[in-house]
Amino acid sequence: MSEWSKKIGEYGEEVTEKFLEIIGWIHPEKGLDIDCSDPQKHKLASSKSDRKKHGLDFLHYQTSPFFDHTLDIHCISSKYKAEKYPSSPINDFKNHLIDLATTMECFEKSNELKEIKKDLGGRARKVRISGILIWLHSNKSGREYDDLLEEVSKIQLPSDVKFKHPIYLVDNKQANFIYSCHQFMKLNYPNQKISYFYQKTGNNNTATTERFFSGCQLPVNLITSGIYIFKAEDTSIQKNSLCFITNTPFSKDNLDKIIGLAHDISQDLSSNITIAFEDYNALYNKNDVSKALLGFSDDSFTKKITITNINQNGAG
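and the corresponding structure tokens:
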């Protein structure tokens, strides 16, 4: 059983808020009631009367690190149960998606959004709304599955529901990966400032004058990513490290791609580069590592690189 699975059991109903804290989404608004703008269309199947409100578990917003003058707004639905995921989760998942999509549709026309825009005072020229469905369980029987996304990947969405905004699914597998990334960084870089590294996109040119752009909040675009880039700053000796942590299986091809990415974005900005896989085994994979490193002619770059397993200490 993973460490995150243990944490889910400890946190119980508060697990979603704890997860948001891990990714830097602190101080979210909680338990909002959004006025329904289409009462008949959004009427609940179990209700005889038209819909009046939509319940929203959490609302969070932050300045986008990837798009200039843009505010990212996160409409978050929390589905936590002690029981394991259903053996056939598609119907439940479809209902959760529809509920979140209709809530976002009404949020876009709500007083809550108008107040947010008013408070910004014109500082953001554009607002991007995203939905995040966080569906977690704390079953510890050992017979449960955690990869909910795989189970619902073939869902057919209803054509009569507007899915205008993106919706991201965070299941046990993804939450565990993100938690493991943070544990890895804490254990390997104690007493250092840890942050997410934000790559240049061509749309965030005025975000900072420095290329080494980072922050404590995980961008919503990356919440379901299979690779995270962290920056570790040791201010006592003015040393920066970049860490690339991935849940993709170890292979020479995958390692080549990450080394290429590290080469493109790090240049002279870091003293050390760590690449961590979930399944890396030094005994069996050392020759693939040597081949990958020998494929790069820049020895001054490759000598900075350490390959490790996410469950091991000593990378920094």
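(Above: one complete record from the training split.) The mean pLDDT is 88.
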